[in-house]
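**Reference record**
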Amino acid sequence: MESSVLRRLLVLLAVVTICFLVVDRVAGYALNNLVKQSGFRFSELYAGGHQADVLVLGNSRAVNAFYAPEMEKKLDQSVFNLGYNGMSMELCEVVLLDYLDHNELPSLVILEVTNLNVSNGLLKDFKLFSGMSFRISELLRSDESVLYNASKLTHLYRFNSELFLRTLVYLNGDDQSWINSGSISEAFGESAHFDDETFKEAYPVHGANWEALIRILAVCLERNIEVRLVASPYLPVYRNAMTEYDASKAVFIERLEGRAGIFDFTLALGDYKDFSDPIHINRRGSDRLLEMMIEGGVFDL
């Protein structure tokens, strides 16, 4: 009697497990297709077939410094901003390599290079694309093994991500006009004070992010893609508080060994109206930065 009950329980457990896996895989497949139909920047990347003359990479400073619609107008070239809030250089490498796998080669990569001290926290949300990218999957396996295993067990868990919500927002349009529009107050702009002890090394030449940058430069050289390393503006009072900035940059340039130079615009804008906060410029600041970049030869190939 007991053995019969146990057999029925095991059969029931097997049926429930199979049903769960079937529903999980079918629903995951359907949602993956939905993600690829979105105009969200990473959805377009993995949908493939994208063609851009200029590709932008970096964290939120790249998102707000390089306004793709205005760049296209002024440069008469197609521009695709693949920057995202909190994106480390290591994730930039993954995104770039995946872009090159699925899309046409760009002529120029603009890399906002002040994310060398950014951690891989964004990777937790990037699990959304782990089924589309073996590179993201491998990075998850090495950095976030619990998330990696959970995402393998249930594909639906991958959609527990802020990035999935972004794909839903942009189902009926692209996100290339995403940029800060507000500006900091005059009072803050004139009275802000920052303690230099709060700043990290501006350009660390060690660790995973540095190694990823070197690989990015090598891949672009191999595929005849020009790379421009750009440091976008900081609010001057913030930038001036970074007392070790120049020394760190000097070491950075030395360690690059001629692989690339750096277009440093960190002190290029002095008006608080060009900033939405101390480390991000707004649309007004982005337009002014673009003119400086054009005059400075950033887009000369």
Remarks:
- The longest strand covers residues 226-231.
- The radius of gyration is 22 Å.
- The beta strands are 54-57, 79-81, 108-112, 226-231, 262-264, 275-277, 280-281.
